[in-house]
Amino acid sequence: MELDDINDKIIAGQRISDLDYLELEKNGDFFQLGFLADTIRLRKHPEKLVTYIIDRNINYTDICISACKFCAFFKTPEEKGGYLLSFAELAEKIRETQDLGGTQILLQGGLHPGQPFEYYEEMVRFMKNTGIHVHGFSPPEICHFANLSGKSIQEILRRLIAAGLDSLPGGGAEILSDRVRNAVAPQKCTADEWIGVMEEAHGQGLRTTATMMFGHIETREERLEHLRRLRQLQDRTGGFTAFIPWPFQPGNSALIDMDKTTAVGYLRTLALSRIYLDNFDNIQASWVTQGPKVAQLSLSFGANDFGSTMIEENVVAAAGVSFRLSEQEIRKLVADAGFQPAQRRMDYSLVG
Questions:
Q1: For 94, phi and psi rounded to 5 degrees?
Q2: Number of domains in the chain
Q3: Contact at 8 Å (CB) between 350 and 343?
Q4: Is the pLDDT of residue 224 over 70?
Q5: What is the extent of the structural domain holding 279?
Q6: Domain containing 242 — which CATH number?
Q7: Phi and psi (nearest 5°) for 47?
Q8: Considering the domain boundaries, does residue 15 fall inside one?
Q9: Is the pLDDT of residue 238 over 80?
Q10: How big is the CA angle at 24 (ends 230 and 39), to the nearest 5 degrees?
Q11: pLDDT at 78
């Protein structure tokens, strides 16, 4: 199909095909992609709101058996200096978050081989006693708990929900192609397993997010495969609240010699995601990897959400990238871009 015909289809609100996506990805004009993504964003969010959440990313351990080649954060179980946060340390971090108006903890950690599943149930119960929303445990962690305990994914999720788990983050997706996963994260769950955890979570009433870490060894077709699998699952369940794409950060990782994705490359991928994922209401900008100014531009390339204030962030920082924004700075960046900032919760209901 010609680009003009694809553009007309998008403006008319029709779903694009995989072939349409590949044509846009290969030959689409940068500014036209931005225009098309912005058209869809305004159709879904005519009120001109840009949301953000005040939360903290708590990495409860850096000890991990996955040894992903793209990760600069983990330590092997045999390495010195690895940590596992105590419940007292968790409580202090939650208290600091709540004092800053935070409503949520994004709880993720390495695949620690030394703790039973019951430990994580108790961790969630302990955290819920503080009143915080626990947005915790990505699909690789859920699969790890199942492997450790011999329990099914269904049982693991049922018990975590009973302990107080509120929602699941979309981490560990990387690229949902097993060729890519086998090359960069062979110990992590497969693409089918990642999708299976999310489908089961949606079936048990948990809302989740979806992510994509791009710009490493994947092909354009594998990037499309990732987006296709997310769109198909969202068609089946409607359980994803948002999609968050971010570029791989090579610093201090085993893939350190790879080139970083440019700002233009990031914005093109963001726009293409908004265009292809027509059943996702919310697309999140990645100021944590791109910095505030590119994130501000993202609001004209399909993003309607500025993500988290990230009171604490360790994984991207371990790769040598460390941007920090306060709530006041986020609100100013959003307002200066011509939008109205609004604090939200995980389900995109507004605070206040």
A1: -65, -45
A2: 1
A3: yes
A4: yes
A5: 3-9+29-343
A6: 3.20.20.70
A7: -75, -5
A8: no
A9: yes
A10: 75
A11: 67
